[in-house]
Amino acid sequence: MTLLTIDSLTKQFKGLRAIEEVSFTVEPQSITSIVGPNGAGKSTLFNMISGYLKPTAGKILFDGRDITGSAPYRVCRQGIARAFQISKPFPELSVRENVLVAASFGRLGVRDPMATTTQAIDICHLTPWANQPAGSLSIGNLRRLELARAIAARPILLLADEPCAGLNEKETRELTDVLSKIREAEVTVLLVEHDIKAVRRVSDRVIVIEAGRKIADGAAADVFADQTVIDAYLGTTAS
Amino acid sequence: MRGFHKPVPATVWALAALLLAGAVVLPFVASPFHLRLAQQILLFGGLAVAWNLLGGFTTYWSFGHAAFFGLGAFAAGLLGQQLGAEFSVAARLIIGLAFAVAISLVAAVAVALPVLRLRGIYFAIAMLAFAQILGEVSKTFDLFQGAMGFPLPLLKFPGLEKVQLFYFLFLLFCLVSVAVFVLVKRSRLGVGLTCIGQDEDTAAMLGVPTERYKLVAFVLSAMLTAAGGVLYVYGLGFMTSETVFRIDISLNLILFSMVGGIGTVAGPLIGATIMILLTQVVLGDLLDLHMMLTGAVLIAMVILAPKGLLGLFRRAWSRRRLAETVEATP
After folding, report:
1. How many CB pairs under 8 A join A and B?
2. How many CB atoms lie within 10 A of CB A96?
3. Chain A residue closest in CA terms to B204
4. Residue B178 near chain A (CB below 8 Å)
5. Lowest CB count within 10 Å: A15, B75, B116, B239, which one?
6. What is the pLDDT of residues A36-56, one digit of tens each?
7. For the segment B212-252, what is each residue's pLDDT rounded down to a tens digit?
8. Do B206 and A102 touch (CB under 8 A)?
C-alpha cells in the first residue's frame, strides 16, 4: 500500500503556475528524493504537503486519508513532520527543550516524550549541546537539530528540505548516515536535495521536477541516465 | 509540564507565603492613603498578570485591554440596574461578575477570530481600535448611559471599612490572576504559547495547535480583565465611559509588564509596584510629569533591559555563577 499519493496537484500564484498537475506516490519505508533546478517548485510542493499552502487543484492522500488543505498542526498530528531548509529553532529554548516540544506534541498516539527526546538527540549527535540555547548553535548543528526535532515528532513520513545545503563533505556524510538511520527506524523519507552524490547514495527512488512539471520518476541510476534529466538539470558534465 | 518545569523551590513558596501574610495584615496597620496605593498595585498588577497570558508568551501584544475592562464594568453595571430591590449589593456584584465574564468570553471569541490572524503590530493596532470603538459606542448610545454615567450601589461588609473591603477584593482578584497564570505557564498550553512566541510557523509544524492556544490565552486574559473592571467600578461607586475605556489603562498593563519582566508572574507585579509608587508617591505633587516620566521609563527599559528588571537580575545572577565556576576550575 502506498503511504503518500500526490494526485494531479496544481498551485497557481497569480500569473505563475508553480506546480502543474504533478502526480506521484511514495511507498512506505523508502527514501524518495525530489530533485530539480532552483525555482522548479520543490518547496511549493513541500509547503502544500505540510499544510502551509492550499493547492489550487488536486489531492493529497496520506495513509488513505485526504489531507488536502489541512492545517499544518493537523498534518503533523497525522504523522508528517518537516525539517526546514533554513533552520528555524526556538532560539531561547535549549536544544533539549526544542526537541522535547516536538516529542510532547507531534504525532497523536502513545508518547514517551523524555525517552523520544534523548533518543532523537543521540541519533543526531547533539548530546554535547543538549543544554545550550538553540540560538547559539553552528549551522551544521542547527541542521541536525532540525532533523532531531522532526524525528522526535514521531513521524510516519519525514519531509526533509535540503538538509545537506551548505554543509561540507564530512558533514553531508554524517547527515546522510542520520537519514539512513531514520529509515531503519521505519520512517519513510521524502527528500528535497541538490547534492546529487548524496541523493544517489540514499535514495530508493528519484523524482525530477522542472518548471513545475514532473519530467522523470524511477530508480536513481535510471533517472540520472535519462537524457531529458541530463538536459534539463544535470547538464552534460554529470554523465 | 514534564521536562520543561522544575518543581517550585521551597524558598519561592516561603517568600510567597510571607508576602501573602504581609498583604493580609496590611489593611489593619496602614493608613487609608497607603491602602489606596496598595489597592491600585493589586488591581493593576493583577490585570498586568492577566495581560501576560497572551502578551507575555507571544508577540501578540494587546494595546486595547481596556476594551474588556470597560466591557465588564458596563455589563455588570447595566445588569445591576435591571435587578429588583430584593437583590443585595453582594448578590448584584456576584451576578454582575458572572455576567461580565460571560459577555467578555463571547466578545473575546468574536474579536479573536478575525484579529488573532493578524500578527505583531497589526494585532496591537486592531486591539487599540477595538477599545476605542467600544468606548465610543458606550458614549453614543443612550442605552449604555456611558456619557452621563451612573452610580453603583455601595458594598458593605461588617467589621471592614470600604477601603479595607475593596483591598481584600483586589487582593483576591490578584491571587486568581496569579494562580491562572502560573497554572497556564506550567501546562502544555504554556509550553505551546512559549513556542508560538519564539516561532509560530515552527510551532504549528511540530503539532502545536497554534490557533486554538492563542484563542484560549486571549479569552482567559479577557475574562480576568473584565472581572477586574467590575471590581474597579464597584470600588469607585460611579462609572462613565471615561473611567473605564481609558487608553492609559491599556498602556499601563504593558508598561508594568515591561518594567518588571514580561512573561513572568512576578514581573508585572514588581512593575506595577514600582511604577505606581513612583508616579503617585515620589511624583505625587507633580501630576504633569507622570506621563513624561512613564514614557522615559519605557524608553529606558526597552533599550537597557528588554526583559525587564527580572531579566536584568537573572543575567547578573548567571554571570556571577559563571564567574564562580571559572574561578573554581583549576
Report:
1. 71
2. 23
3. A73
4. no
5. A15
6. 888 888 889 999 999 999 999
7. 999 999 999 999 999 999 999 999 999 999 999 999 999 99
8. yes
Cβ distance A73 to B195 less than 8 Å, yes or no, reads no
In this complex, the residue of A72, A101, A153 whose CB is nearest that of residue B195 is A101
| Residue count (chain A) | 239
Spatial distance between the Cα atoms of B201 and A3, rounded to a whole number of angstroms: 25
Residue B107 amino acid letter: A
Three-class DSSP category at B84: coil
CB A36 within 8 A of CB A228: no
Name the residue with cell 523520544. Answer: A116
Three-state SS annotation for chain A: CCCEEEEEEEEEECCEEEEEEEEEEECCCCEEEEECCCCCCHHHHHHHHCCCCCCCEEEEEECCEECCCCCHHHHHHHCEEEECCCCCCCCCCEHHHHHHHHHHCCCCCCCCHHHHHHHHHHHCCCHHHCCCEHHHCCHHHHHHHHHHHHHHCCCCEEEEECCCCCCCHHHHHHHHHHHHHHHHCCCEEEEECCCHHHHHHHCCEEEEEECCEEEEEECHHHHHHCHHHHHHHHCHHHC
pLDDT at A238 over 60: no
Q: Domain boundaries in chain B?
A: 10-328
pLDDT grade for A176, boundaries at 50, 70 and 90:
confident
Q: How many residues are there in chain B? A: 330
Structure confidence at residue B314 (pLDDT): 84
CA distance A3 to A67: 12
Contact between chains at B204 and A84 (C-beta distance less than 8 A): no
Q: Are A54 and A12 in contact (CB under 8 A)?
A: no
Record: contact B203-A92, CB cut-off 8 A = no
Say whether residue B194 is in contact with chain A using an 8 A CB cutoff.
yes
Give the residue on A whose Cα is nearest the Cα of B4.
Answer: A97
Taking domain B10-328, whether its CATH number is 2.60.470 is answered by no
| Class of A4-89+152-238 in CATH | alpha beta
Does the interface predicted TM-score (ipTM) exceed 0.90? no
Task: Inform me whether the pLDDT recorded for A79 exceeds 70.
Answer: yes
Interchain pair A113, B3: CB under 8 A: yes
User: Are B46 and B177 in contact, with CB atoms under 8 Å apart?
Assistant: yes
Give the span between the Cα atoms of A14 and A11, in whole angstroms. 10
Smallest Cα–Cα separation from A9: which of A173, A204, A207, A186? Answer: A207
Chain B partners of A117 at a C-beta cutoff of 8 Å? 3
Residue B247 CA to residue B291 CA, distance in Å, equals 12
- The contacts of residue A196 (CB under 8 Å, 6+ apart) are A35, A224, A234, A238
Cβ–Cβ below 8 Å for B195 and A106:
no
Element (H, E) at B14: helix B10-25
d(CA B162, CA B168): 10
Domain spans, chain A: 4-89+152-238
